[in-house]
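Q: My labmate handed me this sequence with no annotations at all. I'd like to see what the chain might look like in three dimensions before we decide whether it's worth expressing. Could you predict it?
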Amino acid sequence: MITLYSGPLSLFSRKVEIALREKHLAFERIMVPFNQTTGYDPKHPEVVAINPKQQVPVLNDDGIVLYDSTVILEYLEDAYPEPPLLPLCPGARARCRLDELYADEIMAERTLEKHYAVLEDRLAGRDFFGDAVSVADIALFMSVLFSLRLGGPSLAPFDGLSRWFERLKLRPAFTQAAVEIAEADRRLSFPLKRA
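A: Here is what I predict for the chain of 195 residues:
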């Protein structure tokens, strides 16, 4: 049985949840308590014991314990290859990994419109960042979702990116993540101050 320690407003945990659902894998989700004042404090004892980074996500697949969303996604692809979330072609696979890295580590708030333009060009009229839904789409979707929920720039000037985002929001795994994050925001977040 797969167990996932997740957080209500953890972008990286939600990436893993989407991947598990896209792969139609049953899992038990343990939602780690969180509040806006103190965050994940006190830290969940099982997460602290399992993950030296002391943060979610943490995945336990019958004794195989992993942390870091990228490592977890790579494991899921190896252990449960169908349906694939990484392309088969080595070049496309590498591009997918770079797109995930772009979503996780490069997109920064002050330059989001520039990043949106880069992503618009990368899509080049396609439905997804690869031939089918992939790890890149999951990571980029979560980065764009978090940007929008925190008051970042609109996708309106980026027609292809906007259509891609709306297309993914219709997929059940993505819908569930977006709905749960919105609900967690209502319960846990301070109202954002708009300029």
